[in-house]
Amino acid sequence: MPRARQAPTRVIGIDPGLNVTGYGVVEFRPNEVRLLEAGVIRLARSGGNNLPIRLESLFSELREVIEEFRPQAMCLEEVYSHAEYPRTAILMGHARGVICLAARLARLPVISLSAKRIKQSVTGNGNASKLQVQRAVQQTFSLARVPHPPDVADALAAALCYANSLRRGANGRG
User: Fold this and answer.
1) How many structural domains compose the chain?
2) Domain ranges, residue 138
3) Options 15, 27, 61, 154, the catalytic residue
4) Which of 42, 100, 104, 162 would bridge with 75, disulfide CB 3.0–4.6 Å?
């Protein structure tokens, strides 16, 4: 008797930002991965006291993407900070919080992944450059060009990292 073909798992990868948030939706089975959609959510420029408005826009636009593609999980790149720029990490935390809220309201589990783990998974090098990640994503999905801006490639790489870990597990190589 032939084995039933496993239903695909659909995930959304997110590269959080307050200016540009990258997203990528992929479907995968143990032996294949398919790109469904990728893009960016661009927010209004920072000015005055418009942070709440920008966060609302991020929330609303991300909810639309989630509603359209109905992923089963969200893969979210962790926020890290540089000692020289602590304010950036705080502001990124705002964006990440809104993204987590959108996932929670959609009943999506959030898989938090470090940038190093994502890069290791898609390029084989945890210290890979942005361009190396873009090229790895381009090759994986047989794209004519590297995904641009890099936020799109980073979001797709987060989704691929999760897909790779589940696919390895499904193939007994977890």
Assistant:
1) 1
2) 9-170
3) 15
4) 162
77 is catalytic: yes
Three-state DSSP class for 163?
Answer: helix
Find the catalytic residue in 27, 61, 77, 154.
77
Q: Is the pLDDT of residue 41 over 50?
A: yes
CA 54 from centre of chain: 19
84 included as an active-site residue: no
d(CA 150, CA 170): 30
In a domain, 1, yes or no: no
Mean model confidence pLDDT for the chain: 90
In a domain, 43, yes or no: yes
The predicted-structure confidence for 64-104, as pLDDT tens digits, reads as follows: 999 999 999 999 988 776 677 777 788 888 999 999 999 99
In this prediction, residue 3 carries a pLDDT of: 56
In a domain, 2, yes or no: no
User: Considering the entire predicted model, what is its pTM?
Assistant: 0.90
